[in-house]
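Figure 2 data, in text form.
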Amino acid sequence: MNACAAKLRAAQHAAQQAAPQRPRLPAIDLDARLRDVFVRQQVDLVIDVGANLGQFVAEIRGFYRGEVVSFEPIPEVFAALDAVAAQDPLWRCSNWALGRDCGDARLHVCPSHDFSSLLPPNAYCARRFGRQAATQRIVPARMRRMDRALQAMGVASAGRRVFLKMDTQGYDLEVFAGIGDCLEDVVAIQSELSLISLYEGMPHWLHSLAVYEAAGFGVVDLYPITRDTDRVIEYDCLLVRKG
């Protein structure tokens, strides 16, 4: 260490002694935090909305062996998901899209299926992610409210401790609006928040946070998903019920 660096280190130490700093929390990855939340909240039912090929369930199966209900509306993706879930007796799937109402919907399917959404990709999404994020075709989907979908599948959430995971490319708040009385049983949520809008008509991320907080949830952590140079585009937001 040269003399200049030594003086700087000594000055920093003196400043910390004069004005102690808040202790810094150690960095924890999402998998470790999820494990901790599942244990602390005693989760015994997972509702996986926007399941894609079941990546989230594969992730949590390392520490959670309870019941899972997944929703994936893209026909060919659902077929692949259903084949995987068939190997797990505690994992059921539906090809309904979820929202605030029941009825017909239109899916904007992209070459990279994890960009597909009930909302059309906007101009920024096309510039940042290119052809993979552009609408390739539009397919019809059956829309259900979450509470009615669970009822139709024979899934009773009452008295359970539910973890709700949503990854619907800009549609999470619409899914949340259809939860009905099932909300009382949700103890924790994972929702995707976009600081930079990727889809037409998607809510501002601060509005999404305000809705979750008004429903009784507080943020545990935010985990970056994608970036644009030095700006975060999307976070996975993990929340738990307050109190």
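Caption note: DSSP finds eight helices and ten strands in the chain.
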